[in-house]
């Protein structure tokens, strides 16, 4: 048997984690998650895998090369996680409650820029980095059901 056919488990030394506030509506959870992860590949291109292709040769966009773990937490846990992500200088994206009232990227950025860091009403956060560092950031959160 050749080594090409042996499927060794792939282990990642990094983790991608999305943390959502537990009081969001289902549509908000999906919206926040999609917005948060959209920025990760631009700042951490190593998280993006190779393009896909089906048996007929139809090409598809590349996606993350590793799983995205989704967690939920109370507002208090999310505030603490935001602070830990900042103190560890991990690549991150933030979604605040103000962004539900905007309709475009320019207004989204202006809404975040208008609020001091400690005053942000964070409803979602994505972090990427070493597994142990990300685990410490999301401490107190639980896996999303």
- Backbone CA Rg: 17 Å
Order of helices and strands: EHHEEEHEHEHE
Mean pLDDT: 92
Shape: globular
Number of strands: 7
Low-confidence runs of at least 5 consecutive residues: none
Tally of individual helices: 5
Query: Strand order of the main beta sheet, please?
Result: 5-6-1-4-7
Task: Give the terminus-to-terminus CA distance.
Answer: 41 Å
Strand content: 15-25%
Assembly level: single chain
Structural class call reads: alpha+beta
Helix proportion: 25-40%
Characterize the main sheet.
5 strands, mixed
Tag the structure with descriptive keywords.
two-stranded antiparallel ribbon, alpha+beta, 5-stranded mixed beta sheet, 145 residues
Explain briefly what this protein structure is.
By secondary structure, this protein is α+β, with helices and mostly antiparallel strands. It has helices at residues 26-38, 40-43, 75-87, 105-113, 131-137, and strands spanning 14-21, 52-53, 59-60, 68-73, 92-96, 122-130, 142-143. Strand 2 (52-53) and strand 3 (59-60) form a beta hairpin.
Task: Give a verbal description of the structure.
- The protein is of the alpha+beta class.
- It is built from 5 helices and 7 strands, in the order βααβββαβαβαβ.
- The strands form 2 sheets. It has a 5-stranded mixed β-sheet with strand order 5-6-1-4-7, with helices on both faces. It has a two-stranded antiparallel sheet with strand order 2-3.
- The longest helix has 13 residues, at 26-38.
- It is globular and about 50 Å long.
- The model has no long low-confidence stretch (mean pLDDT 92).
């Amino acid at each position: 048997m050749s080594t090409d056919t042996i499927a060794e488990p792939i282990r990642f030394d990094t983790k991608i984690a999305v943390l959502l506030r537990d009081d969001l509506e289902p549509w908000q959870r999906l919206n926040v998650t999609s917005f948060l992860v959209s920025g990760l590949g631009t700042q951490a291109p190593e998280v993006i895998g190779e393009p896909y292709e089906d048996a007929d040769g139809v090409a598809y966009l590349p996606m993350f090369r590793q799983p995205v773990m989704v967690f939920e937490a109370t507002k208090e846990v999310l505030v603490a996680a935001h602070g830990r992500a900042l103190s560890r200088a991990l690549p991150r994206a933030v979604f605040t409650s103000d962004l539900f009232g905007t309709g475009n990227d320019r207004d989204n950025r202006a809404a975040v820029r208008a609020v001091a860091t400690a005053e942000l009403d964070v409803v979602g956060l994505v972090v990427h980095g070493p597994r142990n560092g990300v685990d410490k950031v999301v401490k107190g959160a639980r896996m999303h059901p």
